[in-house]
TrEMBL record:
Region forming the signal peptide: none
Organism: Pisum sativum
Name by which UniProt lists this protein: Uncharacterized protein
Family: Belongs to the UDP-glycosyltransferase family.
Keywords: Glycosyltransferase, Transferase
PANTHER family: GLYCOSYLTRANSFERASE-RELATED, UDP-GLYCOSYLTRANSFERASE 72E1
Keyword Protein biosynthesis: no
Keyword check for Ion transport: no
Taxonomy, superkingdom: Eukaryota
Gene Ontology molecular function terms on file: UDP-glycosyltransferase activity
Length: 162
């Protein structure tokens, strides 16, 4: 993931949580990332790495947020779509793969990085999905338009008599 983000050339915020097999409350360890990655991102000012937790809805609601790499848990899906932000799916457990499938095949607001947690992800896979979702002309533009329309529907549904 880190190598694909770096090679994609995009600006990003990455909330880094402990990998599988580590305590969810574990302190960040530099070995979780490629050597020198965090320092290169600081110097380039392209990547902001946040350890453990970040204000997800606040980040998603910022106008410069172009996409959201998500496990596709339902709350994350709702937060992303309520802000008109297309999704890159990487489901991990429970119903997440079903949510991702619906977002890709039915709603057309998501591009799939992988469908299962067991999949091996390459930096080229990461760059490919970033290029698709951030495309200002083709599929990325269509996904953004659909996500924005869903955000409108969600707002309308929550107003009085909506």
């Amino acid at each position: 993931l880190a190598e694909g983000l770096e090679e994609s050339g995009i600006f990003f915020i990455w909330v880094i949580r402990p990998p599988f097999g580590f305590d969810i409350n574990a302190e960040f360890k530099a070995e979780w990332l490629p050597e020198g990655f965090e320092e290169r991102m600081k110097l380039s000012k392209r990547g902001l790495l946040v350890h453990k937790w970040g204000p997800q809805l606040e980040i998603l609601s910022h106008k410069s947020t172009g996409a959201f790499l998500s496990h596709c848990g339902w709350n994350s899906v709702l937060e992303s779509l309520s802000q008109g932000v297309p999704i890159i799916s990487w489901p991990l457990a429970a119903e997440q793969a079903y949510n991702a499938k619906m977002l890709v095949e039915e709603m057309c607001v998501c591009v799939e990085l992988t469908r299962t947690v067991e999949s091996v992800i390459s930096k080229d896979d990461v760059k490919k999905v970033i290029k698709i979702v951030m495309d200002q002309e083709g599929k990325g533009k269509e996904m953004k338009e659909k996500a924005n329309q869903i955000a409108v529907y969600m707002r309308e549904a929550t107003i009085e008599r909506g």
